[in-house]
Amino acid sequence: MTLDTLKENEKGIIESISDESLAIQLLAMGFILGEEVKVERIAPLNDPMIITSGDNYISIRKKDAKQIKINKT
Amino acid sequence: MSDISDTNIVLVGNPNTGKSTLFNLLTGLNQKVGNFPGVTVDKKTGYFKINDTKYNVIDLPGAYSLNPNSEDEKITRNYISDTTNNDLIVFVADVTNLKRNLLLCSQIIDEGKQVILGLNMMDLLYKNKQEINLEKLAASLGCPVIPINARLGKGINKLKESITNYQVNPTPFLTESNNNTIDDTMLRFKKIDTILNDCVTNKGENKSYLLTKKIDNILTHKIYGYLIFLILLFIIFQAIFSWSSYPMDLIESGFIWLSDFVATNLPEGVLNDLLVNGVIAGLGGIVIFVPQIAILFAFITILEDTGYMARVSFLMDRILRIFGLNGKSIIPLLSSTACAVPAIMSARTIGNPKERLITIMVAPLMSCSARIPVYTILIALIVSEDSTISIFNLQGLLVLSLYLLGFVTALLSALLMKWLIKAKQQSAFTLEMPIYRAPRWKNVGIEIVSKVKIFLFDAGKIIIAISILLWVLSSYGPGDTFEEIDKKYVQNEQQLDKDELSSKIASEKLEASYAGIIGKTIEPTIKPLGYDWKIGISLVTSFAAREVFVGTMATLYSVGDEDNTKSIRQKMMEAKNADGGKLYTTATTLSLLIFYVFAMQCMATLAIVYRETKSIKWPIIQIIYMGALAYIGSFVIYTIFS
Questions:
Q1: Of B67, B100, B222, which has the smallest distance from its Cβ to A24's Cβ?
Q2: What is the fold of B3-205?
Q3: Which conformational region is residue B392 in: left (phi greater than 0), alpha (psi within -120 to 50 degrees), or beta?
Q4: Complex-level ipTM beyond the 0.85 threshold
Q5: Numbered residues of chain A with Cβ closer than 8 Å to any chain B Cβ
């Protein structure tokens, strides 16, 4: 499943990121393959969402979150 | 001391790590903002001195890695990869998030650069009950590690000491090279994990985000989030419109005094007239906006500094994206209701180049404060002050609908441009939510000064030039027409009182001037909109700035005192068109109002659009599309109402 389908406060392990440039970007922002990601908050109009992994806290649009394959935990 | 002995210090780090604070701390006011060649990213440089050696400091844009994702990051990458310089890198790291910060640091070490690692925000580390072994960290990275607190100015002397005594031969971080960026990054993180496990003891938990998440529960709440944002906007606009009116009045009277002083103390003649009506009038028109720009940027810097702007962006992104804009576009759009110039400057915070460009292109459609005097005088011609629709004042309703018309048109134009403008790169919208911190007031001050400087000098040059050109156009006519007007009135001097005489001469001269000739020349073009040549002159003169309309009207209808709007109104009401009918009918007046809502009549804005987009193409497109909107809109309205 992909990250955009998670609800607020749900978590998953990042498996892969299909878009390479997005993968490089997210990796550098601390969203590392094999680590846990949590959906902290979803904006009132259902997009974008705030996600956290470790001490990293970012906002991401759903169309980009769709590129992130996760394993729900 | 010579230039050769100067050492370059380059500050690098992730965004939101306090890099700019350290820069301000090191250089104080010895700094200037320039541009990196070919791009719109600011290049901040400054210097400090120890003994007799001068150290130049360059503040590179924040980046997460050497694999660039934005214009900002590209600059940092190019600078670091440039092997021709031997600059010393001070890497500023947020010590509470070392793992991510060390990624870029390790990449820079592997570029063979000399690096000093400055660990910022040490105070937060202690709050989290974490400890860090600095010697071990320095040994594993092969570079000096200096703990600092940029906010409080702690550790700066140690940092400077380390800069002056730098003697390290860089050793590579990764011994095995990997061509695949993702694999390479994962390898680096693996090694960083090992190092951090060895150097950091974690007795508590990271509390930095706990408070931030609690605040976010309110500030990004589905209802309160928007409510708080609306209240903040209200306060900002209150400040821009009402607080700034005191300094603006002061500046206005200052310039009136100055022009009076020059007018009476310099010998009469061309130079006097040029100084008073060209240069001083032009200068006054620029300086008057400084209070609004200062206040606006004070608020914007505070909102950015505290971390709130990222939340606004989060709240507004979905709505504005429909129109090809970005969550951050809300600030430039709303700022435009004060003045488009600072608004367009504030669009820099938008990372996505296409969304930033669209924001810049549509922002001037928002009704700015320079349109207010035009709206006021025109509306008074067709609606009396006390007419109402049920409980609403009709004049107020009309002003409100003009504002709404501008706003809706801005959104629709943005939508159109979303389809027309090709994006150079498809960049993902990822935005770090920094932890909330108190604003750094010194930073706010430095930011205000630098933004006002840009406005005064960059836009100012062009406005002055255009003001002088307009003065020439309206002060000179072909051949000896002006002398003949003077002669004609000398003969009638006894019959008229002095004020009336001079205003009659002024109005007749304007008609005979080049500006008047231009007005008559364009008359056939603007006739379908219901305008005559006099309105034509106003359209030409208010190309410099919209508020010039009122002054031009005052001169045209021979009213000596410009502030006396009531008599301008009466004169305008009595004005006749070529057939002897009323000139300012409902149709003509509404058509003129629509024209001022849409048309791009502001040299300052065009100048700043040119400066911000680094291309003459975009201001030209702006003149054309807004001009077309104005012409077609006015034509339609005039046809419907006449």
A1: B67
A2: Rossmann fold (3.40.50)
A3: beta
A4: yes
A5: 19-30, 32-33, 40-41, 43-48, 50, 52, 54-61, 64
